[in-house]
Amino acid sequence: MANFNLQINGKTHTVDVEGDTPLLWVLRDHLGLVGTKYSCGIAQCGACMVHINGEAVTSCMLPVSSIGSDKVTTIEGLSEEGNHPVQEAWNEVDVAQCGYCQAGQIMVAAALLKKNPKPSTEEIENGMNRNICRCGTYHRIREAVALASSKLK
Amino acid sequence: MANLTKTNRRDFLKIAAMAGGGLFIGFNLSSCDSPKMKVLSTAEILSKALGFNSYLSISPEGHIVIYSPNPELGQNIKTSFPMIVAEELDADWKDVRVVQAFLDTENYDRQVTGGSGAMPHSWERLRKAGATARHMLVAAAAAKLEVPANSLTTEKGVIFHKDSGKKLTYGEVATEASLLTAPEEITLKDIKDFKIIGTPVKNVDNQAMFTGKPLFGLDFYREGMLHAMIQRPPFGMKLKSVNDVAAKGVKGIVDVVTFKNNVAVVGNSTWPLIQARKLLKIEYEADGSVESSSDHDRIFQELLDGKEAQVMRKDGNVDLAFKNAAQVIKSEYQCPFLSHTPMEPMNFFADVRADKVELVGPTQTPDRARSETAELLGIPPENISVELTRLGGGFGRRLRADFVVEAVELSKMMKAPVKVTWSREDDMTGGAYRPAVRYRFEAALDEQGNMIGYKLRGAGINAGNSTRQDNFPSGSVDNLLIESVEHKSPITTNPWRAPITNFLAYAEQAFLDEVAFAAKKDPVKFRLELLERAKKSPVGEIKYDVDRMIGVIELAAEKSQWGKNGNLHQGFSVYYSHRSYVAQVADVEINKGNPVLKKIYAVTDCGIVVNPTGADQQVRGGIVDGMGHAMFSNLTFENGVPKQKNFDSYRLIRMKEVPEIEVHFVQNGIDPTGLGEPALPPTGGAIANAIFKATGKRLRSQPFVEQQEFSEINLELRMT
Q1: In the predicted structure, residue B10 carries a pLDDT above the cut 90
Q2: Which residue of A has its CA nearest to B272?
Q3: Tell me: the pLDDT tens digits for B282-293?
Q4: Quick check: B269 and A37 CB within 8 A?
Q5: Which of A14, B57, B119, B358 is least crowded, fewest Cβ atoms below 10 Å from its Cβ?
Q6: A89 and A73 in a common domain
Q7: Which of B235, B197, B237, B15 is nearest to B91 (CA)?
Q8: Which domain holds residue A45?
C-alpha cells in the first residue's frame, strides 16, 4: 500500500491503497464519490467517465499510481450547484430512464463541449458513441448535448 | 362524467413508520432556478408530515409527500404514480416530494416491477388515494369556515369558498383533516378535468441522477460493511476443489469462503476482491449435462422434427387445410440466448443479526427477496426489512432473488454486514438468460391467397411455453395448430423484457410478411383482412381486442405514409402484449446502392398516457432495445460457460446505430395499460421486413449481423 495525494474536484484527498487500484474504486470505495459508476470494468461502456485535466477518460482501468498531480473532476464536481449547462440540458430534455449511465454521459458531453462548443450533429454522435445507454435514451442524449451547446455563452 | 367508486379500507390504513433518510434524496424542483433558496430535506418534511393514507402525507406547511411503492428501474413509475395521486388530490406538483417506500405488504399491493403491470393494477388505487385525501381536506375546511363542503372548490393545493372569497391551503387544514375518517365512497375526476395527468412531468430523480448522488444499490455503503464477490460454477457443474491460499494473501482480503458450489472472496473494498479472484484455483466436475451451443442446434432440430410436443391450441382441421392448399409456405426462425445486461450489475446489501435482517438494494421483487431470505434463515418475514434503491436497469433479471440470498448467506457466515457485487463478467456468465428458441411456421394458402391453415411449433431451451397461442393470428384462421416443446437445460433462464414475445413477435411478424408476399398481398391489407375475419366471426377464443389492433395498424399506416413513397422500402409489424397494442413501420432507403435503416414509426395504444415525456421514452427505449438485440447481441456456450463475457464481445447498440424514431399514441381515454415492454416486440419484425423489401433477403435468425444474408446487403445504420 502507498499514500497517494489526489487532486479531485478542487480538493486534495489522500488515500492509502495499492498503486494498481483503478481510480474508479478509489473514488467509490475510499472517497465516497459514488456518482462515477461501475458497469463493465474494461473501458467499453463509459459509465465510469471522469475528467482528467479536462479530458473525458474512463476511470475503471486507470491505476491510481498514474494520476500524480493531474486534476480529476467527477460528476460531483462538475458544477457547484448541479447547474452546469449540460446538467441543466439533461433535466430540460428529461433524458434518463434508469439513469445509471447518465453521469458518464454527462461527463463526456461536458468535455466534448469544452473542446468544441458548437458541435455538428455528427460530431455529437461521434463524441457520444463511447458510452452505452442500455435503456436507449440516445435520441434524448443527442438532443440534450445540442441544447447544452446552445446555452453556452 | 365523474365516477363514483367504493374505497378499499385496506388501501387507506395510515402508515405508522415512514420511509425516510437512507438513500432517498428529495429532489428540489426549484434548485436549478434559485440555488440559494433554503430547501427542506425530505427527512425534515417527513418529521412533521401527517399521514392520510399509505400513499400520502401532508405537512402543516403544505409540503406533500407521496410514496411510490414500486421498484423504479427506468420505467418512470416513481414519477408517474405520484402524478396520479397528485391529480386527484388537486395538488400543486411543485409542492410534491416523492419518497420511495420500503417493502410494506401491509399497506401496498404488488410492489413488483414486471409484466408492465403496475399501471393497470394501481391506476384506480392511486386515484382513490388522492381523491380521499382531497375529500378529507375539503371536509376539514368546510368545518373551519362553517360552510357546506359542496360550496368549496380546490386548485393547486388551495381550497376556495367562492361566495365569501375565503381560502385555505391544504397545509392549513392538514392537521384537522388527517384526524377525519376516510369516506366510504369517493368521486373521481372526469378525465377531461385532468391537470397533471397527460402533461409532461420530468423525472423526480433528475437532479440526484445528474449530480451523482447515491441512488442505486451499488451506491449503498455502511460503516463496517464487508464487500464480497463470488465465483459461481459453470452450468451443469459442481465444485470439486478450491485452492485459496494465494487469494487469501491479497491485501484487503478478509476471508475466502465456500457455500453451495460458490467460492466467495470477502474483503474491505472492491479492488482486492477482483485481484484475489484471479488467484483462486478452482476445479469443477460435471453434475448433469454440460451443454454447448452446438448441442442446442442439434436439440432444436430434434424437437422440431419430433413427434412429441404440447398442443397449445387447435382449431379446425389443419391436416386437411394443408392437403387442400394451393400454396404452402414454411420457414424457421431462431433467436439466441441473451443476457439482460442492465448497466448496474447485480448487487445487494444484507445485515443479518440474531433478531432481524436488513436488506438494501435493487430488486424488481422485494417481496421475493424477503420470502427467500426468510426461508433460507428460517425466520419470520416480519423480522426482515427491505429498502428499495433505484435500479440501474433490470429487464427482468432482478425478478430473481439469487443475488439477495447470496448476500444473506455471506452476512450470516461473516457475522457482519455484507454487500455482494457482481462484476460484468459475473453478470453475463451468472445465468438467468433470455431462453434461446427456434420456431417452425407453416401457412397454407388457397387459390385466392387466403390463409386457410397456420401451424407454429416453438422449440425452446428452458423457455416454458414459447408461444402465445391465443394471440393474433389465432382467431382469424379456420385451421390452426400451435405447439410448444421444451428442452430442460442446466443453463438457467428468466423472463427478459417482454418475455417470449420479445422474439416470438419478430418471428411471427416476419413470417406473416412472407405469407403476405406469397399471397401477393400488401402486408398491411393482409393483416387487416385477417383481423376483419377475427372481428366478424372469430375462430375460437381470442385474447386481444381486434378493434384496438386495427386502430394502431391504420394509424401507423397513415403516419408512415405506408406505400406512398416509392423511394422507401417499408416493413410493417404489429403486436399485442402486456395489454397494449403497438404497430411499427421501418423505413429503409437506398443510398448509393446500399440500404440504410432511416426511421422507425411507432403507434401505441396503451390507453390514457399518464406522462407523455416518460411514455415517449418508454417507446423509444423499447424500440432501441428491440433493434439492438435483434441486430447485434448473441450469447453462445461452450461446455456450460458463455463465450461472451463483457461488452467487448457481447455487442450492445450505440448512439450512431440508432435510426430516427417517430412516436405516436392513440387517444382513446381507456384506463392505462402497460408500457414498459410492449414497444419492444414489434421492432425486429418491422426491420427484417423492410430489409426484405429493399434487398429481397429474409433475415430469419438473430442477431442479424451474424447472418450470411446480412453480410451480403451492406446495411447502413446511422442516426442521421
Answers
A1: no
A2: A21
A3: 999 999 899 999
A4: no
A5: A14
A6: no
A7: B197
A8: 2-77
What is the predicted ipTM? 0.98
Could A45 and B647 be called an inter-chain contact, meaning their C-beta atoms sit closer than 8 Å? yes
> Based on the structure, what is the number of domains in chain A?
2
Strands B716-717 and B594-605 turn out to be: parallel
Regarding whether A132 and A99 lie in a shared domain, the answer is yes
Whether B75 sits inside 8 A of A97 (CB atoms) is yes
Q: What is the pLDDT of residues B41-61, one digit of tens each?
A: 888 888 888 999 899 999 999
B214 at interface of A, judged by CB pairs closer than 8 A? yes
Q: Of A77, A94, A119, which residue sits at a domain end?
A: A77
Domain B3-202 listed as CATH 1.10.1200.10: no
Residues B161-175: what's their mean pLDDT?
Answer: 96
Q: Does A82 touch chain B (CB under 8 A)?
A: yes
Residue B558 pLDDT > 90, yes or no? yes
Residues A70 and A9 in one domain: yes
Q: What is the pLDDT of residue B102?
A: 93
What whole-number distance in Å separates Cα of residue B512 and Cα of residue A56? 47
pLDDT of B18 higher than 70: no
Q: Hey, where are the domains in chain B?
A: 3-202, 217-287+346-421, 437-717
Min Cα distance A61 → chain B (Å) is 11
| Burial per residue of B515-549, b for 16 or more beta-carbon CB atoms within 10 angstroms, e otherwise | bbbebebbbbebbbbbbebbbeeebeebebebebb
Phi first, then psi: what are they for B493, rounded to 5°? Answer: -130, 165
CA distances from B425 to A40, B84, B230, B429 (A): 8, 40, 11, 6
Q: Check pLDDT > 50 for residue B34.
A: no
Task: Judge if A66 and A90 occupy the same domain.
Answer: no
Give the residue among B197, B179, B202 at the shortest CA–CA distance from B90.
B197
Q: Are residues A46 and A89 in the same domain?
A: no
Asked if the C-beta of B30 comes within 8 angstroms of chain A's C-beta atoms, the answer is no
- The residue in chain A having the minimum alpha-carbon distance to the alpha carbon of residue B395 is A135
Locate B489 and state its grid cell. 437445460
In this prediction, residue B29 carries a pLDDT of 33
**Three-state secondary structure string covering A71-136:** EEECHHHCCCCCCCHHHHHHHHHCCCCCCCCHHHHHHHHHHHHHHCCCCCHHHHHHHHCCCCCCCC
One domain, residues A69 and A99: no
A43 touches chain B (CB under 8 A): no
Architecture in CATH for domain B437-717: 2-Layer Sandwich (3.30)
Which of the four CATH numbers 3.30.365.10, 3.20.20.30, 3.30.70.260, 3.30.70.3550 does domain B217-287+346-421 have?
3.30.365.10
Comparing B217-287+346-421 with B437-717, is the CATH topology the same?
Answer: yes
How does pLDDT run across B487-522, given as a tens digit for each residue?
Answer: 999 999 999 999 999 999 999 999 999 999 999 999
Q: In this complex, is the C-beta atom of B707 within 8 Å of any C-beta atom belonging to chain A? A: no
B648 vs A contacts (CB less than 8 Å): 42, 44
Gap from A115 CA to chain B (nearest CA, Å): 20
Query: Domain end: A45, A77, A109, which one?
Result: A77
For B538-555, the DSSP string reads --S---S-HHHHHHHHHH
From A102's Cα to the closest Cα of chain B, the distance in A is 7
| pLDDT tens figures, B581-629 | 999 999 999 988 899 999 999 999 999 999 999 999 999 999 999 999 9
Q: Is the pLDDT of residue A138 over 70?
A: yes
Q: Does B339 touch chain A (CB under 8 A)?
A: no
pLDDT tens profile B139-159: 999 999 999 999 999 999 999
Categorize the per-residue pLDDT at B65 as very low, low, confident or very high, splitting at 50, 70 and 90.
very high
Whole-model pTM: value is 0.95
Q: Which CATH number is A59's domain given?
A: 3.10.20.30
SS3 B371: helix
What CATH number is given to the structural domain containing A102?
A: 1.10.150.120
Chain B residues with CB-CB distance to A141 below 8 A: 655
pLDDT of residue B376 exceeding 90, the answer is: yes
- Tell me whether strands B3-6 and B96-100 are parallel, antiparallel or unpaired: unpaired
Contact B652 A134 (CB under 8 A): yes
Q: Among A38, A42, A137, select the one facing B218 at the smallest CB separation.
A: A38
